[in-house]
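If you are new to this repository, start here. Below is one unmodified record pulled from the training split, so you can see the exact layout before writing a loader.
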Amino acid sequence: MNRRDFVTSTTLAAAALGLPEAAHALDTTSPAPAMSDSTQATPDSPRATRKILIAGGGFRTKFIGYMAQLTGKTRPRICYLPTASADSPQSALGFYQACAPLNVEPFVQNMYIESLSQTQGFDEVLLSMDAIVVSGGNTLNQQAIWKAQGVDVILREAWDRGIVLGGASAGSLCWFDEGTTDSRPKALSIVKCLGFLKGSHSPHYDAEAGRRPLYHKLIGSGEMQPGYACDNDAGIYFEDNTVKRVVHTRAEAKCYYVSVVNGKVEERVLEPEMI
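And here is the target side for that same chain:
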């Protein structure tokens, strides 16, 4: 499917779902509206609070709604980056469906673009947002594409400006120094990421049998830094590198801090609040 067909088919499907803003958001031939006066700190203003909201899996309506609250805006502009899902139309539509009950203005920014239709720079689009949600998918490919396009640098500026960042799975892994990933053939492995959040991360902690033992093994051997593990439907809100709140949307879902204490791997439960 070429880009024009992608935009057409996704826009029509979104319209059928009753998502009127989808056509505008996916039409990258139209410039995004200018940044409002109430948007985050500019490079010349004092540094804003840097915010990241992650989940182990299941970054749907309640998590996006919480992210919207964190922006402090009445109707925040939230952009979805489906890079890890190879700009999947189904992934984009799922984002619009999750946003439909919320008072937010959703956008999608693809990475598989061409200069004739993508008339704005990635910085112009992303830095005009109040929040950015990153999709799940292949973290290794996501990181390579972002670096090739300079999006890693733009996301760092967005974070420094106080634009709320977040996501689940590849969308949570990407913010840490490193983590466990299924992005390569045959077995789970280590992936190096953006390093905004220090330490490591393991998503899908309760959903995939191999995640917990591998995470324990890697941290216990010193191959991976201590870090945070999240069950599906559970997440952590960070300000800078400080845990400010632990949340979940399912009663059984939890988050953990995994480290080595007295020579043994220790898994400390971070008790969540329901959102």
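Two things worth knowing about this chain: Residues 3-18+50-274 form a domain with the Rossmann fold fold (CATH 3.40.50.880). Confidence is low (pLDDT under 50) at residues 1-13, 15-39.
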